[in-house]
Amino acid sequence: MDTEAFYRYLTQARRQLWTTLRAMPDEALSQAVIPTEGARCIKDLVKHVAIVEDGWFRLDLLGQPLVLETFGGEPTSADAYWHHQDEPLESLLAYWEAVESDTLGRWPELMDVVSADRRVPVSEDRLETLSADEVIWHVMQHEVRHTAQVVQMIRLLGRQPPALDLVFLTAH
């Protein structure tokens, strides 16, 4: 499976997940399920998945402004980055949808960066670099991992999560 096909699978999985989340009460989506300094509730992970794609694809690969800038700008603290329990789900999903739409619109540009064999730093404080292809796969794998966390959180909250496995969404 190539990168574009896998990203298309993610868009299908998102639709299933978003439908489930929209049917859940806000108290459940905002409830701290994981005892951590980072993402504690479902809403935290929704924002985190979107901002990681936004940052890696727009800033690091394309050198473009974040989609987040049209949604109030970058967080100014760790708390503002991680914790979104008081934000409406629809605002968080609107941001994720905007990131997805921008990614789909810029897919040819992203593939041009991959073809150019460009490398980007892992982070500002490390010397290692990643190829653009590795960045794209990292972002997609990151989403799968955190979506699995959301599915588990939905179960821990006593609800039925959607079936998001690739086999269920891509089989003919």
TrEMBL record:
Binding-site residues for a divalent metal cation, renumbered to this chain: 48, 142, 146
Pfam families on file: DinB (PF05163)
Source organism per UniProt: uncultured Truepera sp
Organismal lineage: Bacteria, Thermotogati, Deinococcota, Deinococci, Trueperales
GO molecular function terms noted in the UniProt entry: metal ion binding
Keywords in alphabetical order: Metal-binding
Name under which the protein is recorded: DinB family protein
Highest taxon above the source species: Bacteria
Family to which this protein belongs: Belongs to the DinB family.
SUPFAM superfamilies the UniProt entry points to: DinB/YfiT-like putative metalloenzymes
